[in-house]
Amino acid sequence: MPARQTDAAQHPFGAAVGRLVEEFGRLPGIGRKTAERLANHILSCSKADAVALADAIRQVKESIRRCNVCFNLTEQEVCSICRDPRRDRQIVCVVEQPKDVSALEAAAAFQGTYHVLGGRIAPLEGVGPEDLTIGQLVRRVKQDGVTELIMATNPTLEGDGTALFVTNLLEDLPVQVTRLARGIATGSVLEFANKEMLADAMRGRQQF
Amino acid sequence: MSTEKSEAIVIRQADFSESSRVVTLFTREFGKISCLAKGAKRLRNAFEGSLDLLSECRIVFIRKQSAGLDLLTEAQLIQRFHPASKSLLHLYGGYYIAELLNSLTEEHDPHPELYASTANALVSLSSPQSPVAAIFRFELTILHEIGQLPDFRTCTICHSTISLDDQSRFWVSESGLICSRCGHSDYQQSAIESGTVAVILKLIESDIAKLDRLVISDRQSKGIRRILNSIIASILGRRPKTAALLKF
């Protein structure tokens, strides 16, 4: 775009540095000042370090792809979780994004496999079921004899709506569809929990 | 800049940065407003998870004098929208209401009656009864509030009162009824049954509590849907995105 080229060209260190500042500035959470600091760091570090960073970025874009089974990010055709023989393939946890898989894996509380939808149904944003991997999920449930589907979409109206859509789609299949529990966070205090959290916790109470 | 308080319903949200969101709210006192909610995506924030779509909350915001976004400083949940369980139609009705509020109202143009109607419609969509009457009632209310509700009692051309026995027609380009005497083949029009007009009048004039007992046949429902789709599309210049989800 002409405007961007003009801004970059006007950088006191030259157009190349200006372009680097602009590219850093496009990253999430990076403002103009931080972008300048990062660009100055690149200018002051060794050429080998800078090239290593550039190579790492190029490699990640060239080698990372979607897993053929669960649509998580992977370097191979099938991701390490789907290849792991210790994983229970009959229990599938359905999430919106690959970063949700990372979060759940960090909790180390789940030994099944995953399915990444690639978002949630958001009609107001023009995102429909056909934009997600819901068709592939239904095929997987049918072909792999999945017995339980844990809907771990975000606990929002759209996340719940996506879970509801999938549940309705699978109602004629012999698969149990469950939803992640919600309510009061461990370590918090009842007094400061909002009424929605308390109501959720009360509805989802478990036998002691 | 002034600090304001209001009750509000979240009708749209969009990511602004890694941790902040732009939230569009339909408020009781100020109409539609767009606010920057800093830190709204963080687990711990000043909004207590109350900024989910169609949630009703009490908000505090700083009103900007310039054209910029208002700044949301607090939000406390009154109630979340829980569409009747396992019904996508109730959920889609909620989405449709949010879209109409966002696209048919102007910023800082208060409509307290429309706010009350929205809250009532969301309560209806949270109950297991059919959402059809509640959605129609909301559509008629929003059209009335923005001054676009056709007069279903008089002819658009001769202004005479239309009898429910009359074979009236709906004049698409003028969004109004024409009596049998004024009907003209050049007008883009569609027939409307007297029973359908009667149901529309009941939806407009009946007390909200009586809507539960209003029986709308499939035929009447399709007729009303066709008319409302036509009016709303002519105002917006397009069909609402979520209208296709309403299968009635």
UniProtKB/TrEMBL annotation, chain A:
A zinc finger (C4-type) spans 67-82. One of its GO terms (molecular function) is DNA binding. Residues 90-185 form the Toprim domain. It holds the Pfam family RecR_HhH. InterPro entries: DNA_Rcmb_RecR, Rcmb_RecR, Rcmb_RecR_Znf, TOPRIM_dom, TOPRIM_RecR. It comes from the Bacteria. SMART domains: TOPRIM (SM00493). CDD domains: TOPRIM_recR. Gene3D superfamilies: 3.30.60.80, 3.40.1360.10, RecR Domain 1. GO terms for biological process: DNA recombination; DNA repair. May play a role in DNA repair. It seems to be involved in an RecBC-independent recombinational process of DNA repair. It may act with RecF and RecO. This is Recombination protein RecR.
UniProtKB/TrEMBL annotation, chain B:
HAMAP family: RecO. GO terms for cellular component: bacterial nucleoid. Involved in DNA repair and RecF pathway recombination. The keyword DNA damage applies. This is DNA repair protein RecO. The keyword DNA repair applies. GO terms for biological process: DNA recombination; double-strand break repair. Residues 1-81 form the DNA replication/recombination mediator RecO N-terminal domain. Keywords: DNA damage, DNA recombination, DNA repair. Pfam families: RecO_C, RecO_N. Belongs to the RecO family. It comes from Thalassoglobus neptunius. The gene is recO. Signal peptide: none annotated. NCBIfam families: reco. The lineage of its organism: Bacteria, Pseudomonadati, Planctomycetota, Planctomycetia, Planctomycetales.
